[in-house]
Design goal:
single chain; 254 residues; mainly alpha; DUF4239; membrane; transmembrane helix
Amino acid sequence: MSEWLVLSIAMASACAVVLTIAVLNNRRIADDDDPSETPDVIEYMTMMIGVVYAIVLGLAIAGVWEGRSAAQESVRLEAQALHEVQARSSVYPAEVRDRIRADVDAYVAHVLDAEWKVMSEKGTLTERGTELLDRVRADVTDYEPQTDHEGQAYQPLVDQVAAADDARSSRGQNAGATMPGVVWFGLIIGALVTVGLIFTLQIRRTFRELLLAGLFSALIAFLLFLIWDFDAPFGRGISATAEPFLDLFPEATR
């Protein structure tokens, strides 16, 4: 069963139960009942809906911000691991060391020049990037250490390549949008309901009330835009950056 069908059934059932109870309860009200003696339910519901929606907005903003932070951290870990591969390979013979460093530079250049754009537009990694990283792995793992010093550096180099591969996979998982469609449905419907409840109150055309209503609506629109902007960590304005690569590989250009 589709999640949208389940959601529709749940929402319709909840509305039906509440409306049924309200109608049955209204039939039991005596003729001499005085509604002025009970609190105004409209003000109470407006307050509760606003509080609930504020909590939902806060959780959504925290979620997408955490996703952006995780994406930025994966970039930092990947760049640091590749930098360690270059630095630790200094104990190898010049031919092997130069080949490892050249392949690392080629991979970093591809990430900055091509893969970053693909991530921002399509939310995926490139096959070419995978091939270049596999080449770096082969450079490290295929070499047989000739001395004890080289042997001591071999396993740390292998571990750093594995760390770079793991960080790259994490970067790929964070490249696309993270907010499910059903959450966006709730956020947009909640915004419409929350703003619409303004008109259930006795709002007048005074400058102060109109200004507050406008600012309230603009605030909700801004928060929704913020969630949308953070939702794609590599694809929009406030996105994760390639600064760790540029800091550790200054010769690379975008």
